[in-house]
Design goal:
By secondary structure, this protein is an alpha+beta fold. The chain is built from 14 helices and 13 strands. The strands form 2 sheets. It has an 8-stranded mixed β-sheet with strand order 2-5-4-3-7-6-1-8. It has a 5-stranded mixed β-sheet with strand order 9-10-11-12-13. β6 and β7 form a beta hairpin. α8 packs across α9, α8 crosses α10 and α9 runs antiparallel to α10.
């Protein structure tokens, strides 16, 4: 187990695309997966019936709550009794799962991942085929696009691909993994600097950058942006863990209802969400400063719309004599879902929008939709490999965006 890598949470995993028999109850009454060589490499050869506590979930791109069940999965050799009783030398391994709301959602072609967690339990993930979340699960675990009938197994989870950065942490939280990454060596410094409270996001982003070391966006803006976001996420979790721990301990001393605990959790979740979006804008703003790019952040264009960034500035935007072709708009969103549509009504003078995100593996359907709406997707270069080859040809990295804006400003 290596801290900061997938091996911190998983011993290994097996993956496949569901067949019609496995996914469709009308094709088979058996809720079982064939225990081929791949699955045996993950779970071993059972002696008798082995029951694993398991969390089973079905993932889609919809905003609806995730369909999830806590069940048990049974690993056994169906031929073992016959071998013992009659000496029939045959083996037939099966992984049984009970009928549940999750199994009722599955369809042929869905992605199945069975991960063995470090505590010995199983996490069974089924992701709807051809969705962004399916691509993201494949990217997270470094799964191959090759389609074959049996399970593919991965037991090496400590490569560079398996390091948990910001993008990976978002996916892990979505599948219910409680991240344990922190940086306790800097806790006292943060408590002293910020007075034992949560600081303004712009101040925290600046502090996070100061702890990264000799990494400058002027040299490689893509690498710098990812490193800054990764660092801020770890530092924020460190500070949050300490401050929330103090608040929870205070609440437990009082004989009160559960409502204050619920409000504390809801407040923490909202803080995480809003802080991440602000952090992305903060770090991009530093990139622009490092490269001498002029901009306006969060300016009003039409009505109440306020794009994240306008280049070269809002005065140029409102100057009707300023050439429209020299104007650029950038929206920054850590993840997309359907929220990206709101940028279509921002900055009406700029028909072609740019959208920066840290979300890997967006589905081809969604990237086609973005293209149809004249939205250019911008991602750090390291995330481009989570997209298909066809998609990659239409992506822009942070360095490319800087070059585009700089060229427009110099014309």
């Amino acid at each position: 187990m290596k801290k900061g890598y997938l091996s911190q949470y998983f011993q290994g995993l097996a993956s496949k695309q569901l067949s019609a028999v496995e996914a469709n109850p009308s094709r088979s009454n058996q809720h079982e997966f064939n225990g081929d060589k791949g699955l045996r490499n993950l779970l071993g050869e059972p002696d008798g019936v082995v029951k694993y506590p398991a969390k089973i979930m079905y993932l889609t791109d919809d905003d609806e709550p995730i369909v999830s069940e806590n069940e048990s999965m049974t690993w056994y050799d169906a031929r073992q009794p016959a071998r013992i009783k009659n000496g029939v030398m045959r083996w037939e391994y099966r992984l049984y799962f009970p009928s549940s709301p999750v199994s009722q959602c599955t369809a042929e072609g869905d992605l199945l991942v069975i991960a063995k967690c470090t505590d010995g339990s199983l996490l069974a993930i089924i992701a709807e085929k051809s969705t962004s979340i399916a691509r993201q699960i494949e990217w997270l675990f470094g799964l191959s696009d090759d389609v074959h009938p049996g399970f593919s197994v991965k037991s090496e989870l400590e490569t560079d691909q398996n390091r948990i950065g910001y993008a990976a942490s978002v996916i892990l939280e979505q599948i219910g993994i409680v991240l344990e990454e922190d940086e306790p060596s800097l806790l006292d410094q943060m408590l002293s600097k910020f007075g034992g409270t949560f600081p303004k996001t712009i101040d925290f982003s600046e502090f996070a950058r100061s702890t990264v070391g000799d990494l400058f966006s002027i040299d490689d803006p893509d690498t710098a942006l990812v490193a800054w976001m990764d660092r801020e996420e770890i530092l924020f979790r460190t500070l949050e863990k300490h401050l929330l721990g103090d608040q929870l301990r205070e609440l437990t001393k009082k004989d009160i209802e559960t409502e204050p605990f619920i409000k504390l959790v809801q407040s923490a979740l909202q803080r995480r969400k809003s802080r991440a979006g602000s952090a992305l804008e903060n770090h991009m703003e530093q990139v622009f400063k490092d490269h001498g790019i002029t901009y306006s952040r969060g300016p009003a264009t039409e009505g109440k719309t306020k794009p994240d960034f306008i280049f070269p500035g809002i005065k140029n935007y409102h100057n009707s004599a300023f050439p429209q072709m020299r104007l650029t708009m950038l929206a920054a969103k850590t993840t997309l879902k359907d929220r990206w549509r709101q940028i279509l009504t921002e900055a009406e003078r700029i028909p072609n929008k740019h959208l920066l995100t840290l979300q890997p593996g967006i589905s081809e359907n969604q990237t086609d939709e973005l293209k149809a709406e004249n939205v250019q997707l911008v991602l750090p270069k390291g995330l481009h490999l989570s997209f298909s080859v066809t998609q990659q040809s239409c992506l822009m990295d942070v360095s490319g965006f800087i070059q585009l804006v700089d060229k427009r400003q110099k014309n």
